[in-house]
């Protein structure tokens, strides 16, 4: 999962008329280039026409001037965000002379230097993200043929130089993560050198307050784990897991970092989906932390749901790690109880007190899915819990889930709260999709309890 970011809409510049030998060639005023850029957002038609002429006359100069404008002190962050978004468009649009492949070798070399300089100095996280996107996209085609030999040494310097600030370290980790994702084979050789840097960043007391840097380092570690091929190579990252989990808990302890918490949890879900074996050695601790998050009602609903999603992702990875989750003490009991508790989040529905059906579908069925058979009054949390109960039952099978249901559901069926009785009946329907053959042997017990 990728970090959330705010995208800047770039207005498409009006197409200037193609200049022929018979036409009088307009002479753009290059000295007023920055003024034209600043007017682009306010008067896109007029500024865009002049801008298009400039692209026709000298596309290399246009690209370099925009790149250099990112370091202009008097430009606001908003205007610089616009400029970096415009630079991205110019470099990637195949129909423009400003496309990377159409630039001269000299301009390409200059632009690479400008981009790295800006990454070293930039403090706006939004612009850092955009710059890293540009660099990583270019690196995909340049690194395999060693056409950007300065890039990897530059990133290493950002992490080791005593003069580097947190923004340059964040940029370096972000670029390592992107390169591992987009062109893993070109950065695999950096793993040994990076390991100590990852370890120090995630565990060093001096960096504990740099949560953004630690989050980005966590992302880079997860991407590297996925891009190395052998189990031995993956195993060398094991000692980084405690620091990664510490980063997660530190983010959760800050109420102002909800988006960051979502990002980190999505990274762990990505790891669980693609590399579940990597988590085996420290599984009990990791699952215990996720249970605590899922049960913590002071956290936002989305965060609690993502912790549940992490566990369900591991349960469903049975082909890669058969039986792994069943070995975690009381995993199924605890997970079932958490999911059952989610289904209690339901609003009273007037039709509950009549003989009318409460399903938002004309087809009579007790099987509730997210779209076809939505339960009236069910909140997002309730629907999520019901869907996860079905997934848990299908993944673990009836022989594992049904005994747990027999332990936990009877108390719900006889509870004075209608929400619990309602939740129990829905749970019976949901888990039947994965355990019908086993459940049929016990259905009479549920019926007798329900009918009193």
Automatic annotation (TrEMBL):
InterPro entries: ARM-like, ARM-type_fold, Importin_beta, Importin_rep_4, TPR_IPO4/5. GO terms for molecular function: nuclear import signal receptor activity; nuclear localization sequence binding. The keyword Ribonucleoprotein does not apply. Residues 129-287 form the IPO4/5-like TPR repeats domain. One of its GO terms (cellular component) is cytoplasm. One of its GO terms (biological process) is protein import into nucleus. Residues 1-12 have a biased composition (Basic residues). It holds the Pfam family Importin_rep_4. It is found in: Cytoplasm; Nucleus. Residues 1-23 are annotated as: Disordered. Keywords: Cytoplasm, Nucleus, Protein transport, Repeat, Transport. This is IPO4/5-like TPR repeats domain-containing protein. It comes from Capsicum annuum (Capsicum pepper).
């Amino acid at each position: 999962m990728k970090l959330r970011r705010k995208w800047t809409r770039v207005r498409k510049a009006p197409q200037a008329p193609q200049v022929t030998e018979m036409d009088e060639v307009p002479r753009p005023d290059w000295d007023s280039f920055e003024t034209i850029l600043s007017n682009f957002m306010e008067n896109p038609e007029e500024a865009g026409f002049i801008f298009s002429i400039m692209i026709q006359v000298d596309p290399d100069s246009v690209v370099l001037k925009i790149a250099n404008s990112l370091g202009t002190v008097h430009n606001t962050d908003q205007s610089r965000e616009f400029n970096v978004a415009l630079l991205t468009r110019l470099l990637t649009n195949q129909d423009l002379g400003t496309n990377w492949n159409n630039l001269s070798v000299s301009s390409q070399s200059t632009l690479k230097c400008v981009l790295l300089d800006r990454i070293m100095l930039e403090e706006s996280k939004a612009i850092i993200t955009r710059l890293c996107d540009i660099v990583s996209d270019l690196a995909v085609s340049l690194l395999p043929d060693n056409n950007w030999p300065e890039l990897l040494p530059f990133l290493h310097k950002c992490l080791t130089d005593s003069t580097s600030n947190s923004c340059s370290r964040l940029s370096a980790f972000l670029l390592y993560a992107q390169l591992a994702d987009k062109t893993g084979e070109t950065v695999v050789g950096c793993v040994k050198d990076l390991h100590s840097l990852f370890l120090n960043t995630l565990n060093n007391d001096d960096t504990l307050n740099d949560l953004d840097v630690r989050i980005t380092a966590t992302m880079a570690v997860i991407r590297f784990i996925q891009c190395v091929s052998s189990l031995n190579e993956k195993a060398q990252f094991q000692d980084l897991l405690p620091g990664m989990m510490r980063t997660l808990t530190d983010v959760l302890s800050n109420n102002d970092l909800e988006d960051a918490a979502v990002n980190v949890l999505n990274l762990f879900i990505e790891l669980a989906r693609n590399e579940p074996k990597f988590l085996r050695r420290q599984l009990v601790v990791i699952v215990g932390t996720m249970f605590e998050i899922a049960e913590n009602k002071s956290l936002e609903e989305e965060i609690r749901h993502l912790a549940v999603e992490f566990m369900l992702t591991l349960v469903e990875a049975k082909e890669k790690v058969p039986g792994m989750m069943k070995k975690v003490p009381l995993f199924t009991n605890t997970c079932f109880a958490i999911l059952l508790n989610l289904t209690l989040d339901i609003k009273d529905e007037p039709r509950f007190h009549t003989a009318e059906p409460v399903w938002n579908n004309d087809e009579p069925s007790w099987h509730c899915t997210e779209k076809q058979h939505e339960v009236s009054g069910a909140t997002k949390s309730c629907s999520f819990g019901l869907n996860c109960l079905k997934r848990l039952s299908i993944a673990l099978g009836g022989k594992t889930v049904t005994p747990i249901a027999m332990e936990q559901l009877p108390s719900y069926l006889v509870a004075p709260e209608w929400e619990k009785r309602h939740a129990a009946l829905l749970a019976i329907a949901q888990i039947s999709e994965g355990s019908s053959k086993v459940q049929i042997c016990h259905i009479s017990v549920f019926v007798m309890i329900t009918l009193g």
